[in-house]
Fold this sequence. Notes:
Layout: E1 2-3, H1 4-7, H2 10-20, E2 32-34, H3 38-46, H4 49-55, E3 59-60, E4 80-83, E5 99-102, H5 105-114, H6 120-127, H7 153-157, E6 180-187, H8 194-197, H9 202-205, H10 211-214, H11 226-233, E7 236-240, H12 252-259, E8 262-267, H13 272-280, E9 284-288, E10 302-305, H14 308-313, E11 318-323, E12 328-333, H15 338-346, H16 349-355
Parallel strand pairs: 1-2, 2-3, 4-5, 6-7, 7-8, 8-9
Antiparallel strand pairs: 6-10, 9-12, 10-11, 11-12
Helix pairs in contact: 2-4, 2-5, 15-16
Amino acid sequence: xxxxxxxxxxxxxxxxxxxxxxxxxxxxxxxxxxxxxxxxxxxxxxxxxxxxxxxxxxxxxxxxxxxxxxxxxxxxxxxxxxxxxxxxxxxxxxxxxxxxxxxxxxxxxxxxxxxxxxxxxxxxxxxxxxxxxxxxxxxxxxxxxxxxxxxxxxxxxxxxxxxxxxxxxxxxxxxxxxxxxxxxxxxxxxxxxxxxxxxxxxxxxxxxxxxxxxxxxxxxxxxxxxxxxxxxxxxxxxxxxxxxxxxxxxxxxxxxxxxxxxxxxxxxxxxxxxxxxxxxxxxxxxxxxxxxxxxxxxxxxxxxxxxxxxxxxxxxxxxxxxxxxxxxxxxxxxxxxxxxxxxxxxxxxxxxxxxxxxx
Length: 359
């Protein structure tokens, strides 16, 4: 597989097309691509590269996340999968016992032709190919007939958005309360990915537009009882180690915990994009001022943060989290710029936008 958001750009697929042009995909290999955009597909078609891909036996799928998140093209048990994507861990492909190898688009094309793992430079020498250069067009056409322009404001007021039963409105968090109190719902270790927080896979991803149902799968692979516990406790806190929230930048890993009532995450450090997503959905990202304090917080402990709204509104970076269960005070840092503080106080970016609409 080549594609999805990471390696499905025009230049990536252009390189694949040039490697396979005039060749045939190995009969024991199923090779498919997920372009990153409709624009990329149109460019490939206009330049004849799409025809080269199809003639070589490449299956051209739709521009989507697709197989990257285990949604379609799930490998058969006992088979190996070679993918030019950005994530790799057990179950990512949609098969619990998968064997996924991450490679470059050029390497994926070479493997597809040879039927075995091979260095694309060796294949180039064997077939007399040149390394494909990245040739960008003079301009990218942006005329997309699939986009529906908005109605004027008067007409829009009378319109009804028709939603199927599996499409629910985005939840909005209430404004930050004066103080916070809640239970530590789960304590996890280092390098927890957004897939640990909210797993991928066809059985779960189909609910991405249905946050109430999707939230039932938060931490499902690590702790099947997390969602039920969060609902029973009325929300609470998450405690993480280093690099919490790394990996795919899916904001659902912040939205779904927020829906369950999670109000903040304490961690040794955060992955940058996930930290931004937490802020955008009104969850306070707190880093331990002293990493050793991670060891004195356990699942089930009751935490309390007095006067949190006032402290954040004043722009203070330092907070004290009281571990009521252990009778300990834990200093944490909350580093927010002015805009991010406004989001947290309002209940997230969406809530802030509704309170301060652009006119």
